[in-house]
Amino acid sequence: MQHQPCCDCANMEREQSWARRGATPLLAFSVSLLLCGVLLTSCGESSVEQERALARLERLVFVPEAVCVLGTSGLPTRSGLDCSNSHSLLVDRYEVTRLEWMDYLSRQVTPVDSAGEAHWAAWGSAGATLPATFMSLAEANDFAESEGMRVPSEREWLRISAGTRGQRWPWGTSSVRSVANTMDLGLHAALGVGTFEAGASPSGVYDLVGNAREWTVPGQASLDGMTQAMGGSWLSRQRALFDWSTQQGLTTSSLELGVSHRAVDVGVRLVADASTFLESESSKWGADPAARARVRAVGRRWGPAAVELLKLELGEGSDGIAWLLEGAER
Q: Does residue 128 share a domain with residue 14?
């Protein structure tokens, strides 16, 4: 079925034009929600849902299955931390933003927690691209589920951040003060997600060391209601993803928190099992030429690493899987 255009076609065409001129996926997402409106005042509901699904796809990085063991470099007898992923992942390039979080809250039928509601209401309309914070882990999980995604485990977060080379910093092998929003910069406030291009991982994931700490889900062995918030924030000093010492062994850049904890500098980044996400979400991307161009552009960014998986999914998926494959094979 052909996608029916938004009743205010000029708005959508303007957003798509900006995307073609090189606007970031985050800007494209922000523009589309602001122009169409979360109250659906200027666009049809199906148009908004398609735009939301496409904008989510454009934010995702492909992380192939791979071996990742941290802390063993140069010392073969040292016991490392195995962060290997046996299934390919899709990962949010950015921490969840205030704009996304408020859009999500506007669609909720049941009331949100009063403590969180007061904090989020104080945001007003400013800072749409700042990281959303102050949610409990349960609220972060609910948000992730609404997006067809989930909150990562600590080991998945480290795999995404350190890569298959097991780097101590997302951008390389040494500390660089000017590429992450930590206390070392002296700004003492959050910045828009994705501000530091040089601080991104090789795969294009931003703000892994600073801006906001990020929730992870506890492992199977956690029975005490505690989990890890990863990566540091504007309220903490810059710290490597992991360190090793003879006294402590291997430690990671994490802060242990209760799952109900709220903090002004703790937010969330979403992940998904690639196959599951593509099977459930690809039908939402539409069937019009503009959607095809945007999906193919995502495939080009994912590149050859995604080709094998996309070929496996091709028989089960919609046209969107074929478009991703077209882009990845270019």
A: no
> Whose CA is closest to 71, among 60, 59, 80?
80
Residue 277 covered by a domain: no
3-state DSSP assignment of residue 244 = strand
Count how many Cα atoms sit within 13 Å of the Cα of residue 34 in the half-sphere of its side chain: 14
Contact 272, 145 (CB under 8 A): no
In a domain, 1, yes or no: no
Q: Are residues 42 and 107 in the same domain?
A: no
Q: Could you tell me the CATH number of the domain that includes residue 164?
A: 3.90.1580.10
Kindly state the helix (H) or strand (E) to which residue 103 belongs, with its residue range. helix 98-106
Both structure tokens of 14: 């303007």
Q: What is the DSSP string of 27-75?
A: HHHHHHHHHH-TT-SSS-HHHHHHHHHHHHHHTEEEE--B--EES-TT-
| Angle ∠(96,49,53) on CA atoms, nearest 5 | 50
| pLDDT given for residue 7 in this prediction | 38
Both tokens assigned to 28: 């494209």
Q: Burial, 317: exposed, middle or buried (Cβ in 10 Å; 0-12, 13-18, 19+)?
A: buried
Q: What is the pLDDT of residues 108-140, one digit of tens each?
A: 888 777 889 999 999 988 899 999 999 999 999
Region 135-147 average pLDDT: 96
Checking DSSP bridges between strand 266-267 and strand 213-215, what pairing results, if any? Answer: parallel
Locate 60 and state its tokens. Answer: 């995702």
Number of alpha carbons in the 13 Å side-chain half-sphere of residue 129: 15
Concatenated DSSP letters of 105-153:
HHT-SSPPPHHHHHHHHTTTTS-TTSBP----HHHHHHHHHHTT-BPPB
Three-state secondary-structure class, residue 192: coil
With CA atoms as reference, report the closest residue to 298 among 322, 269, 273: 322
What pTM was estimated for this model as a whole?
0.85
Q: Which range of residues forms the domain containing residue 206?
A: 62-272
